[in-house]
Design a protein that fits this description.
By secondary structure, this protein is of the alpha/beta class. It has a single domain (about 5-265), classed as Ribonuclease H-like superfamily/Ribonuclease H (Nucleotidyltransferase, domain 5). It contains 11 helices and 7 strands. It has helices at about 15-25, 30-45, 85-100, 115-125, 130-135, 155-160, 170-175, 190-195, 200-225, 230-245, 250-260, and strands at about 5-15, 55-70, 75-80, 105, 150-155, 280, 285-289. The strands form 2 sheets. It has a 5-stranded mixed β-sheet, with helices on both faces. The protein has a two-stranded antiparallel sheet with strand order 6-7.
Length: about 290
């Protein structure tokens, strides 16, 4: 447990149809599924999208990658698999963070969705998490302070300088920029229907793939920040791939991810001319002024 320094996670969630029916259509006696469809139709008319706000949702899959201080992948777990009970998922999420000594959460756009949803799940299910919601003392030390990256490192905020711009393409684009699969067969807007069809395991497998993409984007971000060099990044990526190879027969998500695996094309290891200014140093492949 003391090895875990970072918890990289992703949440898949679905709308609570009974809540939607009760709040949005209290006099119409709609079924849960009918209320969700009605709400989605209204959202399409308003915005062209079917996404229901997180405040109406519950977690149905949370996958967490445990990473050590040297940024090596230790393990990946899907909470409360295969039962996927929202209240148990929420309990394991917050108790796990406490159990591992409150490591850094790492997400992609988790500030805007994943963490607020899990905070609301604590509220919904009556979970006490005083260390996370602590609000005494200097505000910059509060876990929920937007700029406290020690508590939560949001890769989307890192890439956009805290949303000064919007990262068009999202995690899918960020992953593909470094040769990883990105979205494969499933996208987030399909999860609701998958859930209605009883495909909880498939949702969890999809979530695992998103966590893997997030891990590799995290590693590249650490290169940019100077915590890693590219050689060490390659070592960590290779180690993670070996980890997946050893487990691919036990998890379809890992197998699919490996089938779509790509390698980053390192321009410093090719004979490509430098076109963005400067010249290439033939000795080490690094740009020079």
């Amino acid at each position: 447990m003391s090895r875990v320094a970072h918890l990289i996670f992703d949440v898949e969630s679905v709308a609570d149809g009974d809540l939607v029916a009760s709040l949005k259509y209290p006099d119409e006696k709609l079924t849960a599924e009918a209320a969700i469809r009605r709400f989605q139709e209204e959202l399409v008319e308003q915005s062209g999208k079917t996404f229901i706000p997180y405040t109406y949702q519950v977690p149905v899959a949370v996958v967490i990658a445990k990473v050590d201080k040297d940024l090596e992948l230790i393990d990946i777990v899907s909470l409360d698999e295969p039962q996927f009970r929202p209240h148990v998922i929420a309990e394991h999420f917050w108790r796990g963070w406490e159990l591992y000594g409150r490591p850094q959460w790492v997400t992609f756009n988790g500030r805007g969705f994943d963490l607020p949803l899990m905070e609301l799940a604590a509220f919904r299910y009556g979970l006490s998490v005083p260390a996370w919601f602590h609000a005494a003392g200097p505000s910059y030390k509060h876990c929920r302070n937007r700029y406290n990256v020690d508590a939560h490192f949001d890769l989307h905020e890192f890439l956009t300088n805290f949303n000064a711009t919007w990262f068009r393409g999202g995690l899918d684009l960020a992953a593909q920029l470094i040769g990883k699969p990105g979205k494969i067969d499933v996208k987030g807007d399909q999860v609701q229907e998958m859930y209605h069809r009883g495909e909880g395991q498939a949702i969890s497998d999809y979530c695992r793939c998103d966590v893997l993409d997030t891990y590799f984007v995290f590693l590249r971000s650490m290169v940019v920040m100077g915590r890693l060099n590219r050689d060490r990044e390659r070592e960590l990526v290779a180690t993670a791939r070996d980890w997946l190879e050893q487990r691919k027969d036990d998890n379809l998500g890992y197998s699919v991810y490996l089938e779509n695996w790509g390698e980053w094309s390192d321009p410093w290891q090719t004979d490509q001319p430098v076109t963005s200014g400067g010249t290439s140093d033939a000795n080490n492949g690094e740009p020079t002024a």
